[in-house]
Amino acid sequence: MTANNFGLYLIITKPSFSYRKIAETAVKYNVQYLQLREKSLSDREILKAADEIMQVTNGTGTKFILNDRADLAFICGADGLHLGQDDISLCDAKKICGEKVFRFGLSTHNLEQVKEAVQLKPDYIGFGPIFTTPTKAKPDPVVGTEMIPEAVKLAGDIPVVAIGGIDGENLISVLDAGARNVCMVRYFMNSMHFETRVKETVKILNDYGICG
């Protein structure tokens, strides 16, 4: 494993079980990034969920990332913030969150956006959707596995997280295309076999020389 190969990136969106259970499983299997992405919750509910998660992740190797909201990330003391193409700029987010030990991720949906993201020097870049996914109300065009090698090359030392429609059936094709960091949302969040799937996925990543 190298610094930009951390394996599984977990995103929490409308889970079938508790935030605590998700956090405990992430810590148990050494998942390095755990993001809360709950767009339908109120600010108060987001902060409550963040607190529940961080009660488990604080002091562990699992970094808690909040999606979109720099203000709430600062308030709750998150380890990092993930920004989409329509969110505030990384520069403005840093003004809000400060320059303390904090990690920033940026979503990209094509190679041009990857190039632009690299100039901003985030801690990692999300790239996708690799496959069709209903997770977002207005999904971006599918990029397919063919663009993964170029995205990874363009990113250089910045980790690239493949995301969008990835599940147990197509994970290997994503890894074979060159991805070393992957995010699988529905595959985990919609399953009552969450921990088993995390365990199996981490094993597959380990077999590819990637730590989960």
From TrEMBL:
**Keyword list, A-Z:** Magnesium, Metal-binding, Thiamine biosynthesis, Transferase
Keyword Metal-binding annotated: yes
In this chain, 2-[(2R,5Z)-2-carboxy-4-methylthiazol-5(2H)-ylidene]ethyl phosphate is annotated as bound at 133-135, 165
The Swiss-Prot or TrEMBL record annotates one GO molecular function as: magnesium ion binding
Required co-factor(s) are: Mg(2+)
So what EC number does this one have?
A: 2.5.1.3
- Annotated Thiamine phosphate synthase/TenI domain ranges read 9-186
* Binding note for cofactor: Binds 1 Mg(2+) ion per subunit.
Q: Catalyzes what?
A: 4-methyl-5-(2-phosphooxyethyl)-thiazole + 4-amino-2-methyl-5-(diphosphooxymethyl)pyrimidine + H(+) = thiamine phosphate + diphosphate; 2-(2-carboxy-4-methylthiazol-5-yl)ethyl phosphate + 4-amino-2-methyl-5-(diphosphooxymethyl)pyrimidine + 2 H(+) = thiamine phosphate + CO2 + diphosphate; 2-[(2R,5Z)-2-carboxy-4-methylthiazol-5(2H)-ylidene]ethyl phosphate + 4-amino-2-methyl-5-(diphosphooxymethyl)pyrimidine + 2 H(+) = thiamine phosphate + CO2 + diphosphate
Q: Which biological pathway?
A: Cofactor biosynthesis; thiamine diphosphate biosynthesis; thiamine phosphate from 4-amino-2-methyl-5-diphosphomethylpyrimidine and 4-methyl-5-(2-phosphoethyl)-thiazole: step 1/1
Annotated 4-amino-2-methyl-5-(diphosphooxymethyl)pyrimidine binding lies at 35-39, 67, 107, 136
| Origin superkingdom | Archaea
Cite the InterPro entries for this sequence: Aldolase_TIM, ThiamineP_synth_sf, ThiamineP_synth_TenI, TMP_synthase
Q: Which Gene3D superfamilies match?
A: Aldolase class I
Q: What does the record list as GO biological process? A: thiamine biosynthetic process; thiamine diphosphate biosynthetic process
Q: Which residues take part in binding Mg(2+)?
A: 68, 87
Write down the top EC class of this protein.
transferase
Query: Which Gene Ontology cellular component terms are annotated?
Result: cytoplasm
Q: Which family does it belong to?
A: Belongs to the thiamine-phosphate synthase family.
Q: What does this protein do?
A: Condenses 4-methyl-5-(beta-hydroxyethyl)thiazole monophosphate (THZ-P) and 2-methyl-4-amino-5-hydroxymethyl pyrimidine pyrophosphate (HMP-PP) to form thiamine monophosphate (TMP).
Task: From the Swiss-Prot or TrEMBL record, give the protein name.
Answer: Thiamine-phosphate synthase
Q: Which organism is it from?
A: Methanocorpusculum labreanum (strain ATCC 43576 / DSM 4855 / Z)
